[in-house]
Fold this protein.
Amino acid sequence: MLQSLVHYGLHFIVPIVIAYIFYRPKWIKISLILLATMAVDIDHLLSQPIYDATRCSIGYHLLHQPLAIICYAILFLFPRARVISIGLLLHMLTDKIDCLWMGG
Ligand SMILES: [Zn+2]
């Protein structure tokens, strides 16, 4: 319970905080873009079961592979894609924290 609270807290609150700190004038728009990157979790639909709280997403799901994460990091180099890159990396970090929490 506490774990899912932390997980969704990080998924929702951290993007908004980052947007507010680094993109103050347009933080609402940036927050929405960061939250939209949560859509990468759509790859969970390819797995059975779709959601398993004890499973580590990193390295398991298609869009959570180390190779995909490297691509997200490369996106950071392009100003237009930077916000999306931040959102995706943040998402991976949150999922990774989850894995560590589970001892995986
Ligand atoms: Zn995820």
